[in-house]
């Protein structure tokens, strides 16, 4: 029997797996990638009796590989908060799916574990820009505001590490970052350890966010704003967290961060208005390589000539709501 842990390379995927393996230690093959690399389950060559845990990647995107794994006799446990499509009914599948805009995968795992590693779930929710949900989840911990802000920044930094067109863009391979954080039962211990990965991530985040302040404005209306970043590693790293920061600063407005790619396509991160938290997935699924969840989505490779019609669609989308 083989064991596989398949997880998104962002804060939610990493912190979800941290909680599970802190509670249930096990040796496994780790399968992950950059945040936008969600077609991960096909990398598993499943066999009878294998145990596969999938965290924070769309079941809809991975449906063919999921069906193949189940047909091969593997047992699959699936945690996610993205659009799942039709969830198969199978004796060897256990699905924990919740697409509510205030939910993330780490909070689903936290519920299963009855709060055993709640600080990691809180960190993940902050990283996924679910700030209200994170603060609500943290209430049993009785943390002061300074500690909450520290966990929030840590979550943002872990999430920031996942963005990039390729693993070479990242400060840490997501599997290596997960392994570096696994010794810490509590994220506060990781923050206190000066030799841990937090310092590298925090420095990189601050430098890249400062560069993003010069972004060109492509759309500017009361309901929607789009900004352009260049084809550069720092821009690819910061695209998602910059969108989160804009959404927090302007909660009544939708945001698109458009990043140029070397192949001539556009990489786009979408954030729904914070006060609404809906519609991002519907917009992105109208375009090839697009997807996401209600509050946040993206398009991986928009053809060069489609940018103007996409921006027009983006600008109209929330007005229609």
> Based on DSSP secondary structure assignment, what is the total number of beta strands?
11
- According to CATH, the fold-level topology of the largest domain is inorganic pyrophosphatase (n-terminal core)
Poorly predicted runs are none
What distance lies between the first and last C-alpha atoms, to the nearest angstrom? Answer: 50 Å
Label the CATH architecture of the largest domain: Alpha-Beta Complex
Q: What count of structural domains?
A: 2
Helix/strand order: EHEEHEEHHHHHHHEEHEEHEEH
Estimate the strand proportion. Answer: 15-25%
Helix content: 40-55%
Numbering strands along the chain, what is their spatial order in the largest sheet? 6-7-8-9-11-10
Please give the largest β-sheet.
Answer: 6 strands, mixed
Query: Which CATH first-tier class of the largest domain would you pick?
Result: Alpha Beta
Tell me, briefly, the overall form.
globular
By secondary-structure content and strand pairing, the structural class works out as: alpha/beta
Oligomeric nature of the chains: single chain
Number of helices: 12
The value of Rg in angstroms is 19 Å
Mean pLDDT: 95
Which labels suit this protein?
five-stranded parallel sheet; Diaminopimelate Epimerase, Chain A, domain 1; inorganic pyrophosphatase (n-terminal core); 12 helices; alpha/beta; 321 residues; six-stranded mixed sheet; 2 domains
